[in-house]
């Protein structure tokens, strides 16, 4: 059981890092980038989902 929770935590950590890299590389304003990074850091799973659902790439329709 510990092994599975560790794997899940590592996967979430990797996805959060990728999301933060995506935020930094986006065309958003600096303040908006800061807010997104903070949301992802303080709410890892929810922030990650929000970034993918309502982030700038979601608005343009690209994947």
UniProtKB/TrEMBL annotation:
<keyword id="KW-0812">Transmembrane</keyword>
<dbReference type="Pfam" id="PF13396">
    <property type="entry name" value="PLDc_N"/>
</dbReference>
<keyword id="KW-1133">Transmembrane helix</keyword>
<dbReference type="InterPro" id="IPR027379">
    <property type="entry name" value="CLS_N"/>
</dbReference>
<feature type="domain" description="Cardiolipin synthase N-terminal">
    <location>
        <begin position="14"/>
        <end position="56"/>
    </location>
</feature>
<feature type="transmembrane region" description="Helical">
    <location>
        <begin position="6"/>
        <end position="27"/>
    </location>
</feature>
<protein>
    <submittedName>
        <fullName>Phospholipase_D-nuclease N-terminal</fullName>
    </submittedName>
</protein>
<keyword id="KW-0472">Membrane</keyword>
<feature type="transmembrane region" description="Helical">
    <location>
        <begin position="34"/>
        <end position="54"/>
    </location>
</feature>
<dbReference type="GO" id="GO:0005886">
    <property type="term" value="C:plasma membrane"/>
</dbReference>
<keyword id="KW-1003">Cell membrane</keyword>
